[in-house]
Amino acid sequence: MTDSIMSKAATMEIPINSNGDTGTLPEDDSLEQDLQQVMVSGPNLNETSIVSGGYGGTAEGIIPTSSIKGPAVRYNAEFNKRIPVSALGSNMHHSSSSSSMTAEESTRGVAVEKLETVKKWGINTYKCTKQMISERFGRGSRTVDLELEAQIEVLRDTKRKYESVLRLARALTNHFYNMVQTQHALGDTFADLSQKSPELRDEFGYNAETQKLLCKNGETLLGAINFFVSSINTLVNKTMEDTLMTIKLYENARLEFDAYRSDLEELSLGPRDAVAMARIDAAQQQYQLQKEKYERLRSDVIIKLKFLEENKVKVMHKQLLLFHNAISAYFAGNQQQLEQTLKQFNIKLRPPGADKPSWLEEQ
Q1: Using an 8 Å Cβ cutoff, are 253 and 294 in contact?
Q2: Which DSSP string corresponds to 50-67?
Q3: Nearest to residue 64, comparing CAs of 78, 48, 87?
Q4: What is the DSSP string of 143-171?
Q5: Per-residue exposure over 83-120, b if at least 16 CB sit within 10 Å of its own CB, e if not
Q6: pLDDT in tens, 148-168
Q7: Element (H, E) at 277
Q8: For the segment 105-160, what is each residue's pLDDT rounded down to a tens digit?
């Protein structure tokens, strides 16, 4: 009954006259009686209810919040159903529990995966350590590629010699730079004395010009030597080092391959029961994987050694020619040939007074 009154009151039209005054409502005895009944038997002020639905709309339901005996319910006028509030809370609790269980299962899965990774790493480390010790004491066999290992040894020896050339070239550059700086200072001193000593003006002037010319040629030669050092450094510490890193991976793969090969051979010599056959099958699979990895890296090493040799010959042919021509022209006093050498190899000197770091600072 209360619902009908609320609906009826919400849908009533209140006419407004032109002066803003409300018009006279038609008398409705039934409405007045219903209102009186609501005033008499209306809800207590201590009781509170939540009404869903907008103004003038149909009330969808009322959830009492006061103390009620028995299970709390939610009324749905549209479907005329009663939904226990406790059931709603149970559904929310069930959803929260499901989320917690999902997160816990995900965390457990990650932990198990990490544990398996650590386990595999431990087994692999043990097998490789055992194989390495066996090889050092001469009890274990190892896979040997004589031709490839000879090429690797030649590369390591070549790298050591090129590192020596690089170290000596840097020392030469450092000493020659100090000499050029001394010539520059000496030329400035001669020029100053030429202005302050009229009786020796010409003699000081000649020496000042000579030192300035030597300083200019020295800076040109330093540009050529610096280019030589930079190219050798790239060849040794980048190109050769990259190939040696691949060789290191190849050697590790070789050790792992021999470790799993020895393990398979030991299992093959043992009993042939069901458990042993399962272990043999697993070892056979691991052996095959390690064999593929070993052969792949072996192929990579062969290719890189080939390209490295071609690149080394090409680079060193150019750099050795540059070094020879520049040194010869400088000590022969041939300034034109020295400048022509730098143009031939596309070497650009830093202009005087530039804000860039010097060639020595770049080393």
Answers
A1: yes
A2: EE-S-TTS----EEE-S-
A3: 48
A4: ---HHHHHHHHHHHHHHHHHHHHHHHHHH
A5: eeeeeeeeeeeeeeeeeeeeeeeeeeeeeeeeeeeeee
A6: 999 999 999 999 999 999 999
A7: helix 274-331
A8: 778 778 877 887 887 778 778 778 877 788 778 777 888 899 999 999 999 999 99
